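Worked example 2:
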Amino acid sequence: MFDRTNPMAAPRVWEVGALCRAIADALEARFNPVAVRGEITGFSRASSGHCYFSIKDPQGQLRCAMFRRAASLLDFSPRDGELVEVRGKLGVYEARGDLQFIVESMQRAGQGALFEQFLRLKAQLESEGLFDAARKRPLPVQPRGIGLVTSLGAAALHDVVTALRRRAPHVPVVLVPAQVQGAAAPQSLISALSRLYRLAQQGPAEGRPPIDTILLVRGGGSIEDLWAFNDEHLARTIVQSPVPLVSGVGHETDFTIADFCADLRAPTPTAAAELVAQPREVWLGALDLIEGRMADGIQRLLDARHQRLDQAAARLGRPSGLVAREQLQLARTAQRMRHAVLLRLQRMEQAQQAAAAALPVQVQRRIDGLRERVDRAALRLELLDPRLVLQRGYALLADADGRSVTSVQQARPGDALKATLADGVVDVTVASQPRLL
């Protein structure tokens, strides 16, 4: 112990472990039990069921551990950005000499400031249509080149390159490095993406492959570590990508604004690389299958051509047989022609005989018909003979000029008329003035 009464006295020399235990005992006596309110950051759950995270506020940050028994009693799934109240004991993790808060219970106390900011921006951009599924494009099946934006010192770069080298080593990658954490990270990411956009729009050039898709990746971290990917300007830059863009930021449970704006979200950087690059073995297998089918088709075609060639050679090898077949065909054709001519002549002769036999009957029938028509005409003429009318006592009057007199108005007293009777003509004179009936 330090002797306050004697400042010049040498301080006690502690063993490290003993000092850590003494500090832990002092904390136990001074604070415990204690309740703390703060925002969760860096939350992770180990395979053992233990949970490790920190709680923070603007003035400080405290490392926390929540063992499996206490974690199993939670009625919600904690995540970065949530505001919680935790109860437990302060202590010292002697193996590292770290101050540690052992959490025995946890309950929600609201949303943290960063998470609330995240939700507000998410709602704003969603209302503007930046997250609409209709505008998102499918990934190319076989990209000719891949653009990559990440930090040169990030583990995500190694993960992506390893996955691409394993699955599609033939696909070139254009890397544009950028900061992925810190205040300058959003603008750095925007500049890197803008450069890739220009390269994608310019197309392939000498020494530079085409860019058919872009990967934006970063490894996991707390909400503060990933905050650069929740920038509004970065979100608007992402939706302007001329080619499909895949976001692989953080771990599977991490979500950022960039994930919602991208054409496709991958749970990890490695998964993002796997999404854009189908395994080379798949395509090699497909090529082998196509090669086999083409070989089979060509062989079948060759076999068919060989068979036709054999048949042609067989015909050319025995021309006498071909001539005999043609002569037989010619004889058959000549015989059919002779038979057809004889049959035609027989039919014409039969038709001529039938016409000769029917001609007298038709002529007599025609004469009888004409004679009957003449008789009917003579009868009609006889009925129209005016002499038949005169025989009934009628007379036909005519004036001196021979014009017929058919009305009393044509006759005047003293006119000489001729009256034609059935057996002769009588001259008459009009004695008095004719009268109308």
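The longest strand covers residues 98-111. The mean pLDDT is 84.
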